[in-house]
Design goal:
Blueprint: H1 2-26, H2 35-48, E1 52-55, E2 59-65, E3 73-79, H3 106-122, E4 130-136, H4 145-151, E5 162-173, E6 177-179, E7 182-185, E8 187-196, E9 200-201, H5 211-229, E10 236-244, E11 251-252, E12 255-264, H6 267-287, E13 291-297, E14 303-305, H7 307-321, E15 326-328, H8 338-344, E16 347-355, H9 375-390
Parallel strand pairs: 3-4, 3-5, 5-16, 6-15
Antiparallel strand pairs: 1-2, 2-4, 6-16, 7-14, 8-12, 8-13, 9-11, 10-12
Helix pairs in contact: 1-3, 1-9, 2-3, 3-9, 5-6, 7-9
């Protein structure tokens, strides 16, 4: 059976792919700077015998043809960039790059896809269709590497009928997978405010226009956009995360700068909220005598899992691992540029359990102590290979 062959190869390749993961973990690179990582991936594909092309400078796209290559085209995607975080783990494969770490598991995603590629290539006479392997840069930074890859034609020639991606889940136990249909992750937009007032002596506020006071009123007004304008059935978050202005006790500054994030699960509300943020921000600031410069940096769209594709993926996953190992994942207000793909073609973004409490592997992503139980790599590469092989059948 194909399933048993995939499982056997995942077990056989596990040590090799784990070594690849450790190499990637030791030599992380930031978004859009993944030049060594890209060359490493290219060499792995050469070693396997898979043709590829380079896109978006550091992205790599490989093609594996099975029997009847035109019958179906399935894309499997992994992200390859790291984060500006100093690793705190005491491990033999600790990051060798000061202040850079694979703290979101992209080294795991890349390794699992390379493992799946090796399995699918070895068994290409056992399955039908074509697999497009997408190793994507810049997931962690606007505008999102997915948007660049799409503009450069990653979903063309051939156009996939569906796309899958896995993501490590440090809150999900080793041996488990989780799926969710519909809305999975939020859109994410960055907010930048510059409020200009009139500086002066702190003892004479009547002669100044205090941008700190204006900024304080603005923060309250922005929260009311969520509490009094949003449909409560759709999650949304607006957080101001930085308030910078002034540098001494007796001077009212000339200006202050605020930064924050806006997240939504509904694209229509997202558009409406942008208009409200613009209008209310200008009204508040100008009504208090200030001037406002506002930039909304529109980021990733909502990640929406195609219902039919995801329901079938859950069935396939249950057949591969056993239904007791399949869970429903929670909705999250975090963002993922996989949403760009799922706007274009049916997509399924699922979670790979990597937690092992007995080993102390419990830390969340984007933290200095994040790590995984590497036994998850065997499951991840096998699952990606299995979905690629049986999807559409």
């Amino acid at each position: 059976m194909l399933k048993e062959k995939i499982k056997n190869l995942a077990r056989e390749y596990h040590q090799e792919i784990t070594a690849i993961r450790r190499h990637l973990h030791q030599y992380p690179e930031l978004s859009y700077q993944e030049f060594e990582t890209s060359r490493f991936i290219q060499q792995q594909l050469i070693n396997i015998g898979i043709p590829f092309e380079v896109m978006a400078e550091t992205g790599v796209v490989g093609i594996i043809e099975g029997k009847n290559p035109s019958k179906k085209i399935i894309a499997l995607r992994a992200d390859i960039d790291a984060l500006p975080i100093q690793e705190a783990n005491d491990i033999s494969y600790k990051s060798q790059r000061e202040g850079i770490m694979h703290a979101c598991g992209h080294d795991v995603h890349t390794s699992c896809l390379l493992g799946a590629a090796k399995i699918l290539h070895a068994l290409k006479d056992e399955w039908e269709g074509t697999i497009k392997l997408i190793f994507q840069p810049g997931e962690e930074k606007n505008p999102g590497g997915a948007s660049i890859m799409i503009k450069e034609g990653v979903l063309d020639n051939p156009c996939p009928q569906a796309i899958y991606a896995l993501h490590v889940h440090p809150g999900l136990a080793l041996g488990q997978l989780s799926f969710r249909s519909g809305m999975v992750m939020a859109s994410a937009d960055e907010l930048y405010f510059t409020i200009k007032g009139k500086g002066g002596h702190a003892a004479s506020p009547h002669l100044a226009i205090d941008p700190i006071l204006i900024g304080s009123h603005l923060i309250i007004a922005l929260q009311q956009i969520i509490s009094r304008n949003k449909n409560p059935l759709f999650p949304s978050v607006l957080s101001i995360t930085s308030f910078q202005g002034g540098n001494t006790t007796n001077v009212i500054p000339h200006e202050v700068k605020l930064m924050g994030t806006f997240r939504a699960m509904d694209e229509n509300w997202r558009t409406e909220a942008h208009q409200l943020i613009e209008r209310i921000s200008h009204q508040v600031v100008e009504s208090m005598g200030g001037k406002l410069e506002l930039h909304i940096d529109k980021g990733y769209p909502v990640v929406f899992n195609d219902t039919s594709l995801t329901e079938k993926a859950v069935i396939h996953a249950g057949n591969y691992l056993g239904t007791q190992h399949i869970e429903e994942t929670e909705m999250r207000m975090g963002a993922e540029d996989f949403g760009y793909y799922s706007q274009q073609i049916p997509g399924c973004f699922f979670r790979l359990g990597v937690m092992n409490k007995e080993k102390g592997i419990v830390h969340g992503v984007h933290t200095p102590n994040f790590n995984i139980d590497e036994a998850a790599i065997e499951i991840g590469m096998g699952m990606m290979a299995w979905l690629g092989a049986v999807s559409g059948s």
